[in-house]
Design goal:
By secondary structure, the chain is of the alpha/beta class. It has two domains: about 180 residues, Rossmann fold, CATH 3.40.50; about 120 residues, Isoleucyl-tRNA Synthetase, domain 2, CATH 3.90.740. It is about 35% helix and about 20% strand. A hairpin with a 4-residue loop joins strand 4 and strand 5.
Length: about 300
């Protein structure tokens, strides 16, 4: 399909054949090409492609202009790391003009990776005539917009509390502040999910989002992991939990479990359980019943998920 689009110049012809058609112009919210694209960019670029593609199918002439964000802290911080400098004073000693030139070269570092990703996603956008935020034409257009806002009395001087980067001597956006993170220990709970067809056996489910339990529909396990069946010394009930976590759960619950056996993850797939809250289960029975009059075969069962870790 991609080769056909390229050889037939489908996007270019969609513009050439619709010179007099209603116009729908798309300006891409520009990514920064000094970092490698990641899965999040696949999602956003797919979403960006949906609306112009729909408009094209509706008969519009859809100009899709790509853009590159070449300003801001991500670029400066990356270059600063390479040079081993981290403050405005060090940049000034290095030379502002030389630093700017380094930044200009840095922003195109992964250009080919971005082009390849864009093509592989089938994202129609004009990369050959993209706007670049450090180009003089773009900078002048921003100043032109500001002048018009000023002339109309829409700009005012005031005070605002902002995030401040003391080392770099500049304000930070909320997004930039959010990029810094550290690992923390989240509160979590262990919940028993009784198995429907095995009355004396329950799954031990761990979650850091207990507020989602009322709307629970499935329990996810990794099919390649080993799960252990143990006996609860207080109740005699059989509990099923990940083999690698038995000791951890025993310590946290202050219990001594007796091992009864092990199960492969694949042996648990499809087993049905009773959800911890009945409201959603009752609603599912009312609106999602199957021909046999039950939703238990559809909801409230164990499913495979490769993102499960221990």
């Amino acid at each position: 399909m991609l080769r056909f689009w390229d050889s037939a110049e489908v996007y270019q012809r969609s513009l050439a054949r619709r010179v007099d058609a209603p116009s729908f112009v798309f300006y891409e919210g520009p990514p920064t090409a000094n970092g490698m694209p990641h899965p999040g960019h696949c999602l956003t670029r797919s979403i960006k492609d949906v609306f112009p593609r729909y408009k094209t199918m509706r008969g519009y002439r859809c100009v899709r202009k790509a853009g590159w964000d070449t300003h801001g802290l991500p670029v400066e911080v990356e270059v600063g790391k390479e040079l081993g400098i981290h403050s405005k004073e060090e940049i000034e000693r290095f030379g502002v003009e030389a630093f700017i030139q380094k930044c200009e070269r840095s922003v195109w570092r992964y250009m080919q990776a971005w082009r390849t990703l864009t093509r592989r996603l089938g994202f129609w956008v004009d990369l050959d005539d993209a706007y670049v935020t450090y180009h003089q034409s773009y900078v002048e257009s921003v100043w032109w917009c500001l002048k018009n806002l000023f002339d109309r009395g829409l700009l005012y001087q005031g005070h605002k509390i902002v995030w401040w980067w003391a080392q770099g001597g500049t304000a930070l956006s909320a997004g930039e502040v959010g990029e810094g993170y550290r690992e923390v220990a989240d509160p979590s709970v262990y919940v028993r999910f009784p198995l429907v067809d095995q009355p004396h056996r329950s799954l031990v489910v761990w979650t850091t989002t207990p507020w989602t339990l009322p709307s629970n529909q499935f329990v996810a396990i990794h099919p390649d992991l080993t799960y252990r069946v143990v006996a609860d010394p207080d109740t005699g009930e059989e509990l099923v939990l990940a083999d690698a976590l038995v000791e951890t759960v025993a310590q946290k619950s202050k219990r001594q479990f007796e091992t009864l056996g092990t199960l492969a993850g694949t042996e648990l797939l499809g087993l049905r359980y009773t959800p911890p809250f009945g409201t959603y289960a009752q609603h599912a029975n009312e609106v999602g019943t199957l021909p046999d009059g039950s939703t238990q075969h559809r909801y409230f069962r164990i499913v495979a998920a490769d993102f499960v870790t221990v």
